[in-house]
User: What shape does this take?
Amino acid sequence: MRQPLARRRARYLQIGVPAAVIGSLTGPLTVVPAQADTTAPIERLQAGPGGVIPATTTPSTYVVQPGDTVSSIARQHGLRTVDVLAWNGLSWRSVIYPGQSLTLSGAPAAAPAAPVSAPTAPAGASHVVVSGDTVFGIAQKYGTTVDAVLAANGLTRASVIHPGQTLAVSGAAAPAPAAAPQTPPPAASTQTHVVAAGDTLFGIAQKYGTTTAALFALNGLSSGSIIYPGQSIAVGEAPAAAPAPAPAPAPSAPSQSFVSLDAEQAGNAALIIRIGRQLGVSDRAIAIGLATAMVESSMRNLSWGDRDSLGLFQQRPSTGWGSPEQILDADRSTRVFFGGSGDPNGQATRGLLDISGWESMRFTDAAQAVQISAYPERYGQWETQAYQWLAQYG
Assistant: This one.
């Protein structure tokens, strides 16, 4: 009896009778069509008593949670990191923070009624950035494009916007794109602080009798966020009876007034100067090292930074600057920044002395040639003070 049964089964298979008719399947079958788009999330089907269960589709937006990165969010939703960056007007160096809303689709919202009902924003229209805003979302809200918003505000796709910042949203050019960011007037019920050169979130919290955790919550920041001169920071509710304190003076370039260093910063400045003297580099090279450390870490040997950046110069293990332990050795990381024949990192990286013609470059360009930063002009803002620190601590 076994042989005839086997023949019948073989005959059923030849004429197209499904295998499930003959006997139960030993496991689920997965079929991927040849024309499937492997960049989109794959819907996996599970056979069971309940029938077919399609996978959940990707949401249009995602609210950033503590510990998230752009790459982990993209991976979680089956997307490419580069697409998530592009859809949200971000760059590889952009910082995201908890509570921020990210767009997970390149297509406009399904119901574009709001942008369409509001015609092109009138000339002079502006938008005050709130926590969770992106340039992409702002452009959609006012019926314009990301490129138009960037151009109107003198920004690039690598620029970071922050809560409280005022952005022009019309097609008209910005009045005069000054080097310092615009400072919006404080809200009636919120007291703000305009960041000056040398400020830290810890120092600002102490000045206003609050905590760094409260500042993080008010401004949508995290312990990895970077503040910069001219930025407006909310510090709490303004007194009800009295107006806000006298307005802060217009922010000036950091090089226009001397910034005193605290004990930790002064110790690191002295270290950079001492190593520069040992290596026999010029005063200009030492000044470039001091300015670079101030821009990258506020002259502090940080154990955290953007992605895996660490130390005084925010060097990255993933790009060959050394192991985390080596980079956090301030003496070694300073020698690696200067480079040259005594570079502890050998030829794995390129320090200042390894840059051909660095002596004739602009101050900020020489630092940028080593650091490859998204904000190259920031180094030059500290040139004058770097020489002052060299005189004070050398």
